[in-house]
Amino acid sequence: MNLKTQLKEFEGCRLNGYLDTLGIVTIGYGHVDPSITLDTEWTQEQAEAQLDADIAEKTAQARKAIPWLDKLNEPRQAVLIGMCFQLGLAGLLGFNRTLGSVRDERWDDAANGMLMSKWCKQTPQRCRRMAAQMATGEWQ
């Protein structure tokens, strides 16, 4: 398992513009951009290339905002980068107490913070899986 494989499982791929659960026009593997409309069509190659670019962008954003990110193991890094991918950087940084728990290696507290969030109500299966990954430090 790795971040890209996990994001593909969570997001699925749709090659036509669609409305996500929040009513936002989306395409590919969860890509959001103002230029995307419901009429937008992509090839699989476009979706794959955009996913790679989105992962690179969100990883860079998370690393810049969370200087200790690279001290975490890969599955735990993937949780935070995956949250940045889904919620945006501002959404991830809104998890102040959870991030403090991660920084302090209080894994169960971090997982509980994730489980008690609005995010968990919106995407419960994904959140539960990510919280378990944070708690155990193992891919879920």
What does this protein structure show overall?
It is a single chain. By secondary structure, the chain is mainly alpha-helical. The chain has a single domain, classed as Lysozyme (Orthogonal Bundle), CATH 1.10.530.40. It has helices at residues 3-11, 44-65, 74-93, 96-103, 107-115, 118-122, 124-136; strands at 14-19, 25-28. The chain has a two-stranded antiparallel sheet. Strand 1 and strand 2 (25-28) form a beta hairpin. The longest helix is centred in the middle third of the chain and has 22 residues, at 44-65. The radius of gyration is 15 Å and the shape is globular. The chain starts with a helix and ends with a helix.
Which descriptors would you attach to this protein?
140 residues; mainly alpha; Lysozyme; two-stranded antiparallel sheet; 7 helices; 61% helix; globular
